[in-house]
Amino acid sequence: MMETEVIHTGNENALRRAVEVLKGGGIVAFPTDTVYGVAVLPWDLDALARLYEAKQRRSDIPIPLLLSDAGQLERVVVIPRRFRHQARRLMARFWPGGLTLVLPKTEIVPSMVSRSHTVGVRVPDLALARALIQDAGGVLAATSANVSGQPSPITAQEVEEQLGGRIDLILDGGPSLGGVPSSVLDCTVSPPALLRHGAVTEAALRAVVGPVQTG
Predict the structure, then answer these.
(1) I need a surface site. Which of 1, 61, 206, 211 has the fewest CB within 10 A?
(2) Distance from C-alpha of 153 to C-alpha of 92, rounded to nearest angstrom
(3) In which domain, by residue range, is 160 found?
(4) 41 within domain boundaries
(5) What pLDDT, in 10s, does the model give residues 151-180?
(6) How far apart are CA 94 and CA 143, in angstroms?
């Protein structure tokens, strides 16, 4: 167990400190537009291993990627030609926002992030989160800041209750405004499949892309 540092986002050094921790191989929790997330650099295999351990998460469960902006997309995923129109419409409508798109990953994405040929990607609708991601290099491997199977936290205090002593730093930005995890849409099948109901409703997705598979 370690001592988890907590810094309020009102501190002028908060982002700089968070980036320093991430680039040093550490784990950082921070608010997003949905719930609090916990992240590492996606290219740091040791940090990824620590993240799985901290969350008590099975190593075969992928970790989504948060992007600072849609311009980072082509670094980490390939949009199949047959889904290009749908994917672009979804991004135009729901990014930044609470929609994670599952797409084929590029070779740069480590298998420790996702063992399959796909990975989830999202641009969060919170300026602080995007600034952190941008300053850390444009892409973070990030998932909800909870112990696997436990409720997703919406405050820094809830993060500390679950992951205190397991992660390096918590950015306290007050309660997450959304409070609901992102919706997850698999764009590698036709019609797209809604893998997780969340911040973006099924009706809203259908209004953009038409039929959607649900489990």
Answers:
(1) 1
(2) 28
(3) 5-179
(4) yes
(5) 999 999 999 999 999 999 999 999 998 999
(6) 19
